[in-house]
Design a protein that fits this description.
Length: about 325
């Protein structure tokens, strides 16, 4: 089910007793929490709404709430985040598992138990996990792809009477790695900046949206592969001057070259490759664009040289800037 389905269930008062919420998009997971909270009127939330973190407090307090009837209301909602007992490494005591199974089989009328699993890797072989997945309504909120993030951006801007330049949109997606959650964090200051003309420009994105370290590493790797020595060295100097630690910067650069090699070995869609590597599909898309431009042998050579540079940084007292300049001259 989707967030829209959940809204419909709330509006029609057609609420199941058990939900499990999965997904990797933080902004959507937070929106889901707000929707579940809205089921209980604000004045009744102290008595009929509770949220527990299983990794911190365990299960017993949540069970005490979910087995008690609503207090002068139609519903009681109990949120349980980080239900690691559904994973391979987590577990319940025999009595806890028996109590939870009993709640699933015979829920208290009006009570809703919401398990917020998020991006936990559920162990579908476990008896309790099988039971939950069989009985619960699954609200799945996967990470949005690049096209969906773009559509969401345009919808948000249209609602507020704003537009965005195509180049500004491309740069915003690049700087936020096409992450819907990160884009939402950056949008308020862009809207404030463009409040007069109601148009977000490339200059606004450049001035206000800080490039993530992965985007900076991508830019630097691109300059290295293009053999633009002066620009690469200047960029490296600027990053160090702005507080980037050379060893970490080298690790980011090494990671970018490693990513190119990993993506080169994978088939399937950007989403499939991203899932296999545990990264956003947008990074896979950028890597594949680079692979169409640069010889794989050159990427391997760069990876080995950067790896050697890291070893020298850790084992010798050599100026990192000198090492990078030497690397660029010899690459």
């Amino acid at each position: 089910m989707t967030l829209q389905d959940l809204k419909g269930q709330i509006e029609n008062q057609a609420l199941p007793d058990l939900y499990i919420v999965t997904g990797e998009e933080p902004a959507l997971l937070q929106k889901a929490k707000r929707l579940f909270t809205s089921i209980i009127p604000e004045e009744d939330q102290e008595m009929n709404f509770a949220s527990y973190d299983f990794s911190t407090v365990g299960l017993d307090d949540a069970m005490a709430d979910i087995t008690a009837p609503p207090f002068f209301g139609d519903h009681r909602v109990v949120l349980l985040t980080n239900p690691t007992f559904l994973t391979a490494n987590g577990k319940l005591t025999d009595s806890q598992e028996k109590a939870l199974t009993s709640v699933i089989e015979q829920p208290v009328p009006g009570n809703l138990l919401v398990l917020f699993a998020g991006d936990l890797k559920l162990d579908k072989r476990k008896k309790i996990t099988k039971r939950v997945l069989a009985e619960a309504e699954n609200l799945d909120l996967p990470r949005l792809n690049e096209r969906q993030v773009g559509q969401a951006l345009h919808q948000l801007l249209e609602q507020r009477g704003f537009t965005i330049e195509p180049a500004a949109e491309r740069e915003l997606l690049l700087r936020t790695q096409a992450s819907y959650s990160m884009m939402l964090q950056e949008l308020p200051k862009l809207l404030a900046y463009a409040s007069e003309g109601k148009k977000i420009t490339s200059q606004a994105v450049d001035d206000l949206v800080i490039k993530e370290s992965t985007a900076q590493a991508f830019d630097l790797a691109d300059l290295v592969l293009k053999r633009k020595q002066e620009e690469a060295i200047r960029t490296y100097h600027d990053l160090v001057k702005n507080g980037e630690v050379p060893l970490r910067l080298n690790a980011l650069l090494l990671g970018q070259f490693r990513l190119l090699l990993q993506v080169a070995s994978l088939q399937g869609s950007d989403a499939e490759a991203g899932k296999a590597l545990g990264i956003h599909p947008f990074r896979v898309k950028l890597a594949r664009q680079s692979l169409r431009t640069y010889p794989l042998g050159k990427i391997r050579e760069g990876f080995l040289k950067i790896l050697d540079m890291e070893i020298q940084m850790k084992s010798k007292r050599v100026d990192p800037l000198f090492l990078f300049e030497t690397f660029m001259v010899n690459f």
